[in-house]
Amino acid sequence: METESEPYIRLATLRLLHEVVADLNTARSLADTVQTVADGVIAGLGYELSAVNLVRPDGDLIVAAVGGSAGAEALMAGRVGSRASWERRLSMGDRWGDLRFIPYTEGWVLDEDDVPEWHTPGPAPRFPDEWHPMDRLLAPMYTAGGAGGELIGVISVDRPRNGRRPGAWGREALQMYAFHAATAIGNARLRANMQRALLRLEREQQALRASEESFRQAFEYAPSGMAIAEMGGDHHGRLLRANDALCRLLGRTASALRRCSFSDLVHPKDMGTLMRTSAEGGRAELRLERRDGSYVWVSLRNSVVADAADGPRFQLTHVEDIEERKRHELQLAHRASHDSLTGLPNSAELRARLGSRLCAHPPRPGESGAGDAEAGGLSRGYDAFDGPGAAGVFDGPGGAGVFDRPGAAGVFERPGGSGVFDGPGGSGGPGVFDGPGGSGGPGVFDGPGGSAVGGIPYEPHVHAIAPREDDDVDDGHKGLAVLFCDLDGFKSINDRFGHHAGDAVLIEVARRLAGGVREGDTVARLGGDEFVVLADGLGRADAQDLAVRLRNAIIPPIRVDGRAVRVGASFGIGWASCGMTAEEVLHSADQRMYVEKRSRAKERRRAG
């Protein structure tokens, strides 16, 4: 290029360089950009062969594009050279700015390394700047446009068309081209990364939309109730969404449910269970109110959706109708504790209820039991009747009431209510013996460790104390009377007319006994033709009067299969007293019954 026409050549080269650099920015992908870089060396810089080597993530360099020779491309494309071999090449030879020229006189030591290349042997140069086939010229590409940046690749060129080693202008042009090529490759990689990110984002959005749609359909069309509630903030617990199954279960519209929370719907006695479940997640069984005011048993399963930054945000609740199962459970519990023939509490239930009224400690001298409790401002300690394993005198939902009547589910039940001591409104109201906070607050008759009434400590258990044994004097003391009843003449009816007639007689006697006692008294079938009545708050005279009334209720004829039969009854009256066991109390009443049976004249007994 040291001729008179060099300025014109420079101008033409500059024009070609401008064109190939412009082409670098038109490539649409990284692969197209790299190939354009290789082809631009051939078209604009006057070389017959070029290769673009790119740095891989592991540091080695791969031949990404070859220009000028199909044979060289077939031999070199896709092959990898180690980073160590390339670092060796870039550290030897002559430094032409950022370029590295390795003359054939030094490059022979590179013939055995692992860098892919296309070289053929040739004769020695005829003049000093003649290009030798084994010469190597390398143009490193850096991210910052110079040797101070990170190496992203190397352009290797071979066989200049004029057969000479490049002069100052040729070197400058190649170095400038390598700078623009590095920029174009960096931009192509950025575009490729952005395209991959956009594609990944679009796929994630599509998956999210598909997941949301799947969740929406699963939520809306689930066969059991589902709801989403807000957590935290001013509207904690408010329902945000409710599916059709939950609306049908509660008889409410979705818009009506969105204005309330589960705490507005739960039975007052189940509020504590709901609060624990909402705070801890998990599963709970409780009652929710329907639109008509009735309650339905449901199983709640909560899943808290938490945000790593802000804490819990939403609560997904699965609501399953378990009313039928609860009904079966109650029926099974009733069958286990009640006589299948008469519907009265059975022997085990009788002993449990009687035992729950007793304690192992006899009353202290001078203690008068229930009377003192009432004088102190407390009614009888019925809450203390709940003993370990006992059914409980005034059991809550699901427990059999102590003073059950045949066919009745609870002790002092009112129609539609779940218990005697429910407040106004039936089962939905707080119990009379509930504390100020309703079912969740401390009860008036809290157990050991409970709160005191008016701040004064008290003993929650009121001792059962028998009246004095002197039958001629009624000292006014009240106690728990145990009336042991044995039918007279029943065996002859059973033998004469069969077990069917005997069963009918037992059913009728049970009905008459239940009809002759107060609400709150217990009538139980002990077995065979033996019955027991528990009546609290009676004196000795009261108990004698009750026995006479019940005997008179049993004596009238009983119609069985069109015939009238009669049975009599013998009663023994025992008294429950703390310090005794249930078996001892029943045995005492049984013995008194046999004394009474033997003392009555045989001719006064009625037989069927």
TrEMBL record:
Pfam family, one: GGDEF
Annotated region (Disordered), positions in chain: 358-381
TM spans (from-to): none
Protein name according to UniProt: Diguanylate cyclase CdgB
PAC domain: residues covered: 282-334
Signal peptide: none
Top-level taxon in the UniProt lineage: Bacteria
Domain GGDEF: 478-608
Biased composition (Low complexity): 366-377
Keywords, in A-Z order: Coiled coil
Record-linked PROSITE patterns: GGDEF (PS50887), PAC (PS50113), PAS (PS50112)
Domain PAS: 211-291
The keyword Cell cycle appears for this protein: no
Coiled-coil portions: 187-214
